[in-house]
Design a protein that fits this description.
The protein has ten helices and no strands. The radius of gyration is 23 Å and the shape is globular. The protein has helices spanning 2-31, 42-52, 62-93, 95-108, 117-124, 129-152, 156-164, 169-204, 212-221, 225-260. The protein has 261 residues and is mostly helical. The chain folds into two domains: 1-35; 40-260, MetI-like (MetI-like fold, Orthogonal Bundle), CATH 1.10.3720. The model has no long low-confidence stretch (mean pLDDT 85). The two termini are 26 Å apart.
Length: 261
Amino acid sequence: MPKRIDFTRSLVLGLGGLIAFLGLWYGLSASGIVPPLFLPTPFEVLDRFIDLLDRRFAGATLPAHLAASFERFAYGFLLAAIVGIPLGLLMGWFRILDEIVSPIFDGLRFIAPIAWVPFAALWFGTGIGGPILIIFAGAFPPCVINAYRGAKFVDPRLIEAANMLGTPNRRVITEILLPASVPSIISGLRVSAGLGWQSLVGAELIVASTGVGYMMVQGQANLSTTTVMSGMIAIGLVGLALDTALRFAERLIERRRGMET
């Protein structure tokens, strides 16, 4: 019962906040305090959003632009996970690797993903490689850091028992470090997905000829604020869906681990 009450309370408060936000938005636009050209009403943006679902703008419909964006995101995000998670686990297990890689990694991870845009444009132009590089730059650090932390906080008794039994390092990593680090890895993937998605949109504003970011740039060039805001809404909805899916996976894994223990 308390959980149901908490959920209902959170739902009511969330809806109340949304209604207040939309009311303030509508009031500012309808009152003329902000010119309609720069702040259209929520209804105008909603109409434009629905219109873009089946009408082409900047060469494609909104779903097609989102599909192009998501394809780039998937490549960059998966590459970051495939490289970053094993690297983080290995750094957490092999001290010498940690000492070799950490200075380089700590320097690179503080470079904002958007700072890679000129470099990506020089290398790849407006091809798919540029956005993938920028997404990778944003998504890679959280994968490494959380896998590293997960490996560092594994129960030492498990490692000692494995060493006493003469278990090879490969099996220790795959059968002890990796399973024990899964919660931390999933948490890192949530952060990584958010940063990767944000990095993608920033990249598409500059080095892409398709995608929702490109659509927004073309909307700005045509003084179509409703198009720009429709793109922003689409970005937010996709980001929310990604985070919800990863949060569900995180809770599922925690529940299974709790049942096993």
